[in-house]
Specification:
The structure is a single chain. The strands form three sheets. Strands 1, 2, 3, 7, 8, 9, 10, 11 and 12 form a nine-stranded mixed β-sheet that branches. The protein has two domains: 219 residues, Aminopeptidase (3-Layer(aba) Sandwich), CATH 3.40.630.10; 63 residues, no CATH class. The chain is built from nine helices and 16 strands. With 302 residues, it is an alpha+beta fold. It starts with a helix and ends with a helix.
Length: 302
């Protein structure tokens, strides 16, 4: 992916300054000259590692999926976060002044963004990441960390594109926030479904709608939208519709993809990412996820 991106940008997108962090693998792209820049980030790794030699990305009128004709089986498309990479490249082609950071190792603990060159973001207006499953989630907070300002949300008209605010899961923009990113950022759905599995697929209309929203934000949000990092601490509580925990979705996805993982396996990972996390609360959430999965399995929903 690093070699492909370096080649593609050099041969297909004009007026770009490309910086490769050879030690880490991150790629930083600056197009055009401006006092301030809109900025996108995407990660270039994927969970799926096994592809047959005849692997194909099959594109129909409505969806894209990975397929091996010889083995007659679905194979992971890599749309998480290939879709985000695609949005970044399309936006680079169209926008006169833009910054893009392509990070390595998001799926193994945000390795690249943990070692990001934070000076790259000093003249950015805001940072957008397209690395969320589905079609309509506009992530404004992740695990007790607010990502953006009210002024940014009011300026971007995300609801006009069918999006709504949600709390999200660990990804690169959270890591950037934790390292001092002082402008508003967000993570938005970009049309992939069943990530981290061989059945992963992309709904083209949802991906195109994501691109349209990103282009809209870039064209209309020409101010800088400051926002300081603020960790609010762990939270769990009750809403009208039942128990909610900030870590529930993340644990649910991990356990669904890797049912063999024990709580201690989960704890080993989470305590490194979230140093302030409470082990007892996390274990209660893990047990809740396991109970919910068992409930649905007994009713043949899974």
């Amino acid at each position: 992916m690093i070699q492909f991106l370096l080649w593609y940008i050099k041969h297909h997108i004009k007026d770009c300054k490309i910086e490769l962090d050879k030690k880490v693998g991150n790629i930083y792209v600056t197009k055009g000259v401006s006092d301030t820049y809109p900025c996108l980030v995407a990660h270039i790794d994927q969970v799926q590692t096994i592809h047959s030699k005849d692997f194909q990305a099959i594109e129909t009128q409505d969806i894209i999926f990975g397929w091996s004709p010889k083995n007659k089986r679905f194979e992971g498309l890599g749309a998480d976060d290939g879709n985000g990479v695609w949005v970044a490249l399309k936006t680079l082609q169209k926008t006169e002044a833009l910054k893009v950071a392509f990070f390595v190792g998001e799926e193994t603990g945000c390795v690249g963004s943990n070692k990001a060159n934070m000076d790259f973001f000093n003249d950015c207006r805001f940072v957008i990441e397209c690395d969320r499953r589905g079609s309509c989630d506009f992530i404004t907070s992740i695990c007790c960390t607010e990502l953006c300002s009210t002024e940014f949300l009011e300026a971007i008209s995300y609801k006009d594109f069918g999006y709504h605010e949600e709390n999200g899961m660990m990804t690169d923009v959270l890591t950037l926030k934790e390292q001092g990113l002082n402008v508003s950022c967000c993570n938005i759905s970009c049309g992939y479904y069943q990530p981290h599995t061989d059945q992963e697929y992309t709904v083209k209309a949802d991906l195109l709608n994501c691109l349209a929203l990103v282009e809209h934000i870039i064209e209309n949000c020409t101010d800088v939208y400051p926002h300081e990092y603020e960790y609010k601490g762990g939270y769990s509580g009750f809403y009208d519709n039942g128990f909610y925990d900030y870590y529930y979705d993340e644990i649910y996805e991990v356990v669904t993809c890797h049912p063999e993982l024990s709580f201690e396996d989960i704890w080993t990972v989470f305590k490194d990412y979230y140093p302030s996390i409470n082990k007892l609360e996390l274990e209660q959430t893990y047990d809740m996820v396991k109970d919910d999965l068992e409930y649905w399995r007994t009713r043949d929903y899974l």
